[in-house]
User: Fold this.
Amino acid sequence: MVKTFQIIDRGDPKSREIAERYKKSLLKGGLTISQTPDLVISIGGDGTMLKGFRDFYNPSTAFVGLHTGTLGFYADWSKNESELLLKSILQEQPQLEKCPLIKGEFKLQSGEKKEYLAMNEIVIKSKSISTMILDVKINGEKFESFRGDGILISTPSGSTAYSHSLWGSVIHPTIEAMQVIEMASINNSVFRTLNRSLVLPKNQQLMLDFPEHDDDSIIVGIDGKEYPLNKIQAVNISVAEEKINFARYRTFPFWKRVMEKFLKEY
Ligand code: NAP
Assistant:
């Protein structure tokens, strides 16, 4: 049973009110608040869960989300079910569904290295109207020369987010893979790309190799947050060893959610 928790909310009155009610009931039920909690409860939307991941990710922590707007992919309990979810947290042992994350290792021209985990995606794109130039390598071998707006690397869970807007495939969130998507690639006799998304399995590595540049023309976004990384030399991205645990108090109907979000007419 869950013994320690954290609650994160979107900040709007409805989410705040539910978060306060949850906190009181969980403390009354004998649970305690911890910085490395057994369970992170996100109240708001999928974006709120991304913040919860940034603030509290730990391989042994589980996450559950309640949506105060329309149902999401991470926030899969509706606000009308808030009492039911609260009762489940207090009384039941959840099943843990493990979903893959991706890891980005950024090597800067200064020699500095930075590492980040992403739950949705890593986006590397040109900050200006000018194109971004780089070599794409797979497992150390040159694959293609890219010139265009940018490259997005998505987790399976992120395939319904930014990746979907760029015509990426929807991938079941438990499949151990990452999807690489080109953003407006130029194809001519010098720069030639596959011009389709690639799906790489675990243990394979994507490397983006940048020519030397002395401006800060590249922008890095991870799960919707911008990271100021100056003069990137190369980026290695792979499916991470670490996974995220989702606490399932009932089965999560992924394909039904895809149908409801993208196909259903209201
Ligand atoms: P935001 O720009 O305020 O929200 C973007 C939207 O993406 C929200 O509707 C959010 O749902 C939804 N979303 C987030 N993760 C999702 C997922 N795994 N599957 C389906 N929908 C998802 O920013 P935010 O709320 O902090 O979310 C950051 C995410 O926005 C990024 O990770 C990126 O995937 C996405 N984004 C998309 C585009 C685009 O499609 N052109 C551009 C930039 C960023 P909720 O309303 O439930 O929070």
The chain has a mean pLDDT of 96. Residues 45-47, 50, 72-73, 75, 120-121, 157-158, 160-162, 165, 223-224 surround NAP (CB under 6 Å). DSSP finds five helices and 16 strands in the chain. The longest strand covers residues 232-248.
